[in-house]
Every structure is written in C-alpha cells, then in structure tokens.
Amino acid sequence: ATIALENARRHGLPLKFYQQGNDEAYLRRLRLVDELGQVLERGGDQLYLVYQPKMDLMTNKVMAVEALTRWQHPDEGFISPDLFIELAEQSGLINRLTEWVFETVFLQLQTWQQARIDLEVAVNVAATSFSSPDFSYRLLNQLAASTQSREGSQRAPLSLELTERDILSNKEIGLANIDRLRNNGIKVAIDDYGLGESSLSQLKSLPVDELKLDKSFILNLDSSVRDQMIVKSTIQLAHDLNLKVVAEGVENKASLALLRAMGCDSIQGYYLCKPIVADEITRWMEQYAYLDHL
Ligand code: C2E
Ligand code: MG
Ligand code: MG
Ligand code: MG
C-alpha cells in the first residue's frame, strides 16, 4: 500500500482515488495509468479508433460517424473506455489521449476525402480537457497544421460531443471554448442528454447545435410509454430551441419507427450499425449508401 501511495503521488492522483477501492483494484488502476502513459509515449500502439454511423432520418443517409477509442491491452484484452477515460482524466493523461484521437481522426478524414467518402466525424471530449481555456486554441492549431500539411485537401468536417458536466464544470471557460470552436466551423453536441443534473433552463443558455438523447431513454423505447413521453417532449423542446436531436442506442426497428414519428432528426445504434474500424466503414458506406430499407 505504501508503494501504491508513492505511485499515486508520482502520478498526481488524488488520495480519494485510493480510498475508493480495495488495494488490488487500486493497484490495477495505477498499473493501467502507468501503461497508458507508456502507450501514449510510443504514439498510441494498443489504441485504435472505431466509428459508428449516424443516419439522418430525413434523407436516410449516413452523413456522420462518431469516433470511439479502443484500448487492446496485450495481457488484459479489451479495456472499456469508461474505465481508461476516467483513469486518463484523473491522472492528467487525458490531454495527450485527446490529441492522439484528433490526430488519428484527421488522418482518417484525409483517407475518406481521397476516396470521395463524405463523412463528418464526431469526437468525444472529456470534462478535464474541455475545462482548460486553451483547449479550443490547441485544437484549432492542430486542425490548421493537419490541413496545411495535406495539399489541396479540404478542411476536416468535425463535431464535438460534450456532456453538460464537461461544459458546466467551468461554465465561463466552457462557453468561451464553444464560441471559439463554433466560430471556426466546428459543431458542438451535448452527449448523454437527460442523464444527471441536466435542467431545461440550462439548455436555453447553451449555444450548441445538437442534443444527443442518452441511450437509457432509447434502449427500451418500444416498450416503455414513460420513455416515449420523455423522448417526445424533449424532441419538441429541442426543436423549439432550434437544436437538432440525435437518439443513441437504437437497437430495433420499432424504436426507429417511433423516433421517426416523433420527428427525431437522426439516429445511431446497433440496429443501424455497431462501431467498426475505418476500413469496414468504407466498405459499409459503399454497400449501404441509402438506407431506405430500414
Ligand atoms: P458515448 O459517447 O455516449 O458513446 C456511446 C456508447 O454507446 C459507446 O460505448 C457505443 O459503443 C455504445 N452504443 C452505441 N450504440 C449502442 C446501442 O445500440 N446499444 C447499446 N447498448 N450501446 C450502444 P463505448 O464505445 O463503450 O464508449 C463509452 C463511453 O466512453 C462513450 O460514451 C464516451 O463517453 C467515452 N469515450 C469513448 N471514446 C472516447 C474518446 O475518444 N474520448 C473521450 N473523452 N471519451 C470517449
Ligand atoms: Mg458520444
Ligand atoms: Mg459520453
Ligand atoms: Mg452515451
């Protein structure tokens, strides 16, 4: 335990982090933090991105995908992003991880542009990255550098997914970041909407483009009248506020039909497509350019 505490100090982890779990779980987390740091130092071997399509319900076309990070650990196998993102946030590795994600996304966008596949990519950004005032500057610099280095290529069509916690953990800085990003053509969506302490009055003051309804309201939409009522009125409210609405976690045809009837703008979920690697997305896009059969 003494060694664990030493390591915790070395990594700048808060003590509450230690007290939360038993020794074994704690030591595993420390080890993972250490290994994630090394992985990032080596340029992200063991990490890769998968992409999940988002279908526009007006056109039945896929115009965008969400990038999700995967960590394939050599001994432990697949480690959930819910765990390693949290560890990265607590240890301060998150900025380097976020930079790796954007770098990888920009390269992928270039490949898709060359193949004439028109896709916007959405990237998740964690609170600890977003609450830094220079987040937007660093991202815009990274974007400019990647556009410049590719002759004749267009600017990357990009959107960010943030939770309300991400934005509100420091509202002033969060809003300044959002302004700067949107002024530079980057869209902003609120992820996992409806979870936690989201409030309707908050929504009115958040200058974003899109609401992503949390999958906990969508997974059982076909059988839960209560979820149907919540989703229906949230869509209405969002539209009144000029926001687009995406539903995540659509797993069956019945839920898709309900969302269509409620005027939801787009959907994402296993029913349409699971998150898959970029090459598979390319093939999938060639095969399913139009999704009228859904
Ligand atoms: P999220 O942004 O809300 O992403 C949606 C999650 O739901 C993903 O889990 C996705 O695989 C899963 N999902 C998609 N469709 C369905 C469906 O129809 N049914 C069900 N049951 N699940 C579905 P995943 O990939 O495990 O990611 C979990 C969370 O980790 C993400 O939630 C996001 O908050 C975070 N995350 C993932 N990659 C990154 C990243 O690169 N950066 C940051 N900051 N966070 C990330
Ligand atoms: Mg997301
Ligand atoms: Mg999320
Ligand atoms: Mg979610």
Q: What do you see in this structure?
A:
This protein is of the alpha/beta class and 294 residues long. It is built from 14 helices and 9 strands. It has helices at 2-10, 15-20, 23-41, 81-91, 94-114, 127-130, 135-148, 164-168, 171-183, 200-204, 215-218, 225-240, 253-261, 278-287, and strands at residues 47-56, 61-73, 77-79, 120-124, 158-162, 187-193, 210-213, 244-247, 266-267. An 8-stranded mixed barrel has the order 1-2-4-5-6-7-8-9, surrounded by 4 helices. The model has no long low-confidence stretch (mean pLDDT 90). Bound molecules: ligand C2E and magnesium ion (MG) (3 copies). One magnesium ion is lined by residues 191-192, 214-215, 248. It comes from Methylophaga lonarensis MPL.
